[in-house]
Every structure is written in structure tokens, then in C-alpha cells.
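quick one
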Amino acid sequence: MLIGAVVTSSLSLSACSPADGDETAQFSPASAQDFAPVATCTAPPDTPVRIEGGTFVMGSSALYAEEGRERQTSVDAFWIDPHEVTNRKFAEFVAATNYVTVAEKPVDPAQFGVPVDQIPAFMLEPGSAVFTPPNQPSQNYGDWWEYLPGANWKRPYGPDGPGAVPDHPAVHLAWDDMIAYADWKGGRIPTEAEWEYAASAGAEKYTDQPGPEQANSWQGVFPVVNEAKDGFTGIAPVGCFKANAFGLYDMVGNVWEVTGDYFRPGHNPADSDNPRGPSENAAYDPINPGMVSRVMKGGSYLCAPNYCQRYRPESRQGRDPGLGASNVGFRLAYDSAPQG
Ligand SMILES: [Ca+2]
Ligand SMILES: [Ca+2]
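structure w/ calcium ion:
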């Protein structure tokens, strides 16, 4: 990790990179008739959903180069969580194992690759990347991402903010934290292909922002005008928005979800039968060069039409495996019917 990479990473984890036309995308305000307030918000069941194997068109050439090119892709049957892993579920894991997450531990100076005296002291404290909206319009992700000491899954807004809400997705988790939870739970992190197949659910591809009743995203001009027509300025409890045809909630929006594939821009057309992405050696993240990133999917509550049209199943960005963020979570897949 290079100095400043914590902040740099916040970009990739984020919301979105300023790549491939984001700057030129135009904001088109939703009309009043598009506004559908959330009437009910009850936590969905935890029981994993069986996804039958099948073939679908993976990827998209419509918006961002890293999502192309489209290809017929097959996946075998699997099970997947119906919603993002919640703080409630993560707390069960921590209570049973006394696990301490990466964001709760001091940062290893060796990760920065520079002498310790060149590293700002606060960046060596336990913490995570927190979205902090700027006071004025900006296209610079450094203006809205802050490495905040004391931020972790239990304190998602830092030590002075409110505590974790049980039905919110767990955030500020590093790759090792997700793997530890998966091992304890008897599941695994889904492949990108599995995740995208489950998220697509046989639906037509789309490029427009989902309606306010469909997904927790950002309505308004990011990062300064958050109209919250969907009822949430930030994270929503899981299950507040309409499930897709497979009965899965918040695949699009709410928080990005980490998958097991290493990130590299674009899909390999020859790798289409239960693909698992590039090898570790072939991983490449142009937003975080030199970092072996994983693929995250589906966008988050920070995705807005003027900056980040990634509220779609095909969306993908690289994710620093060693750093948490306030808009990144995960859900588990399973190879056999989960018990309990
Ligand atoms: Ca929202
Ligand atoms: Ca999600």
C-alpha cells in the first residue's frame, strides 16, 4: 500500500470512479409521479434462496468499459442470502467467536511502503473510510471520503456517531472479516458471475436509475444534493425495497457487495462457464494500481445519475481488500442447502 492509499482506496470502494463518462452524465430530476415513498419496511427472512443454474448475458457494453463485453455465461446452482449480511447477523458471529475486525486494529505501517515518519499518525489508528458530503459541488472523491479513526462496523459513523442499527447491512469490513464470517457461517463469498446472475433474475438490462421504490440509491446531484426520494439519505435497513424476481433484496443499491473474483477491467470472453475471474497475478485495478482488488457489485446509496450509474447488476468496481468503507458490505453464497 502506498502512502495515501487509504484515501485512494476510498475511491475504489466507493461510490464510483470518475471514469467513462461520469462527468458528462446529466442529472435529470425525477418527476413527482416517480416518487413512491416506502410504505413498509419489515426485515425479510434470513433463509438463503436456491438459485437454479442457468445461462444469462453477463456484463454490459452500455455505460462503462470495465463492464464489457457482454457474453453468454453459465453458472451452476447455488444458494444465496436473501439480503446483505446485517449488523444483527455479524454481531452473532462476533459474540460467538470474539472476532475483532481489521478496522478495529491498528494499521500496519508496512502497508504504506514508506518510512513511518511520513505517514500521518491518524492513518495508523484503527478506522475506516466514511462518506462525508462536502459543502460544495465536487468531482474529486477525496472531497467526500474521509479516513475516520474509530469508525468500524459497530460505530459506522465514527466514535461520536450513532451505533450500528441491527437491520442495517454490516459495513467497514475488510476481505478477511468477510471470509471469517463466511467460514463461521458455513458459506462463502459468491463469484461475480453468481452474484450478477442472481441480481439479474432474468430481468431486462436497464441503464436508468431505479425508481425510488426499487433501490436505495442517490436522487439528486451527487455529492451535494441528496433528495432522498427513496426515503433514505444513507443506508437503509435490508428489505425496505422491492425484492427481485428471485426474492433477493437490495442486490442493486443500498451497499456495494464484495464478490470473490479478483478485479480486472472487462470480462474475458473465453471464461464463460462458471467463471471465477482472473488469477491473482492478472488482477489489475486502474483506480488502485498495485493493489490486488476484488470485484464489488451493484452500487450503493451513493450512486447517482450525474456521477455513478452503477445501480445495476452489471456494475463492477475494484475493492481494496484491506480497508472497510461505509458503503460496502457483502452477502454469502452456499454450495448446499444451509443448515439452521
Ligand atoms: Ca437513498
Ligand atoms: Ca446491495
